Write a sequence for this structure.
């Protein structure tokens, strides 16, 4: 019974680690939020986390890391991404399992070597599997363009859902509530970052549909969560991270056609933005002032 409980906690922590938190309650709310938006995406995420966790146990990876969900968040994102783009087939479910395992193994390799890769394993594996899926001519999901009437409040909340490919407003609300339970102060700052991105993007023409969906908020809120803390140096890193990540997001949005053959740039602005701040942090020695 204890082993089963630990396994379930590891699965749920995998969902919460998407947002850099360790909380099975937050993970449960995040999973429900995904399911409300796309039930098949939730099934794919569960299958990918399950596959990665099983392999992690078989190969004797750190039990603490397994329990913390560190081998679950990138696999979960791989599964969600694939089922958000392609119609479910036997081959696609096989790719979900394979992607979950590969993402988990890469995550382990980077954790052991103390490489702060964040969601990079998800990005790389999804790019690879997207090309494979297109090579085998898997059918994409026909999505009716969703163009909500612009609502500043809803756009800010939707940013949380877009981290897991969900534009459903209720999904964003549930995810936000889960994160507040896990780390209230960090979530409030991420909440403000998402809304600030919406406010800034309101000054640009031709992107208001994406802005209404929260598509410019999810990368910056993730970066904010990385550097959340109580000191003024944390605040500096959060503000710098916000600016750098938003710059990368706008740059990639401008050249989004270059990423079409691999499915998109996903959370790459978040990864690059966080790396830049970690590099500046190391150069300026801010870590000693935590």
């Amino acid at each position: 019974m204890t082993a089963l409980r630990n396994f379930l906690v590891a699965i749920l922590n995998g969902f919460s680690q998407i947002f850099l938190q360790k909380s099975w309650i937050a993970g449960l709310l995040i999973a429900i939020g995904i399911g409300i938006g796309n039930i098949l995406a939730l099934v794919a995420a569960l299958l990918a986390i399950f596959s990665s966790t099983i392999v992690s146990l078989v190969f004797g990876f750190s039990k603490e890391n397994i329990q913390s969900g560190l081998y679950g968040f990138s696999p979960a994102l791989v599964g969600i991404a694939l089922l958000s783009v392609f119609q479910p087939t036997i081959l696609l479910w096989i790719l979900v399992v394979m992607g979950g395992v590969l993402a988990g193994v890469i995550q382990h390799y980077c954790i052991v070597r103390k490489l702060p890769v964040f969601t990079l394993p998800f990005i790389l594996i999804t790019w690879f599997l997207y090309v494979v899926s297109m090579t085998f001519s898997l059918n994409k999901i026909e999505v009716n363009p969703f163009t909500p009437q612009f609502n500043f409040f809803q756009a800010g909340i939707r940013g949380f859902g877009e981290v897991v490919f969900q534009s459903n407003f209720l999904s964003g609300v549930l995810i936000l509530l889960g994160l507040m339970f896990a780390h209230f102060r960090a979530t409030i700052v991420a909440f403000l970052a998402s809304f600030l991105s919406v406010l800034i993007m309101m000054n640009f023409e031709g992107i208001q549909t994406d802005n209404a969906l929260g598509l410019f908020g999810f990368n910056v809120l993730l970066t904010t969560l990385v550097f959340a803390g109580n000191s003024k140096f944390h605040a500096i890193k959060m503000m710098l991270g916000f600016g750098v990540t938003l710059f990368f997001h706008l740059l990639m949005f401008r050249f989004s056609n270059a990423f079409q053959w691999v499915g998109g740039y996903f959370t790459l602005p978040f990864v690059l933005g966080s790396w830049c701040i970690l590099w500046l942090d190391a150069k300026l020695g801010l870590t000693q002032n935590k």
